[in-house]
Amino acid sequence: MTPGPALRFDGTARIEGRALFGDIALDLAPGDWTCLLGVSGVGKTTILRVIAGLETGVDFAGQVAASDGAPVSDRVAYMAQQDLLLPWATVEDNVLLGARLRGEAPDRARAAALLADVGLAAHGQKKPFALSGGQRQRVALARTLMEDRSVILLDEPFSALDARTRAEMQELAYALLKGRTVLLVTHDPGEAARLGARIYVMTEGGAEAVAPPPSKAPRAVDDGEVLASQAALLQRLRAGP
Fold first, then answer.
1. Per-domain residue ranges for the chain?
2. How many CA atoms lie within 13 A of 153 on its CB side?
3. Are strands 59-66 and 7-15 parallel, antiparallel or unpaired?
């Protein structure tokens, strides 16, 4: 796969004339992870949807541009907070959903290989109800990988998992999304401190770039620099605009 490009998001959004966010500028690291950290309601998911070219319900004025000049939205895969698995379909068919919606021939061999990559080789013919929450998120990750896009948008995909499973999923996603340009929206300062090559803190007043810990991600959860970064990010969030 071609490494993901650098991305630039720059713009404002309004809802019925009221500002949702204004003058937000984000530079996404090419082929690496950028974390967008913020409290609920400041417009983080709206930014993801604008980048993906999805309906937002807001008036957006600005641009989303890639460093190579090619269109962005047709190179995007989106992984949401909920796994959004079809309950009546098998795990394998859920991974193949994109191809089915596009009317393409399903590549079952590749789907099986991706399920093996996420540790679910023996679960392809099960239905989602037979899986744990962590396993369902692994299926969602395999479905995202199945799209083979160079830009990956992650909307708090690990937030509902227990602490151990969350850490495992962070590490698995980081390994399997290597080389892609990833934007992770999160409420969790610890997650941003572990994973971000670039970190932005978004408040009602805008978005501020914050230096990540100097070590290479994914960083250990008990690393002193990660813990210090986590504390600083939480303080920045609590300070508000």
1. 7-86+149-239
2. 21
3. antiparallel
pLDDT tens profile 146-188: 999 999 999 999 988 899 999 999 999 999 999 999 999 999 9
- Supply the pLDDT for residue 1: 61
**pLDDT of 195 above 90:** yes
Closest by CA position to 189, among listed 151, 157, 121, 236: 236
CATH architecture of 7-86+149-239: 3-Layer(aba) Sandwich (3.40)
Residues 6+ apart with CB under 8 A from 78: 48, 52, 54, 144, 152, 153, 155
pTM of the model: 0.93
Q: Which tokens belong to 65?
A: 């541009």
The string of pLDDT tens digits covering residues 64-96 is 999 999 999 889 999 988 899 999 999 999 999
Q: Which of these, 100, 99, 148, 90, lies nearest to 122 by C-alpha position?
A: 90
CB 22 within 8 A of CB 202: no
Q: Which residues pair with 153 in a beta bridge?
A: 78, 183
Quote the CA–CA distance of 217 and 148 in Å, as a whole number: 22
Q: What is the pLDDT of residue 2?
A: 67
- 153, with CB counted inside 10 A (0-12, 13-18, 19+), is buried
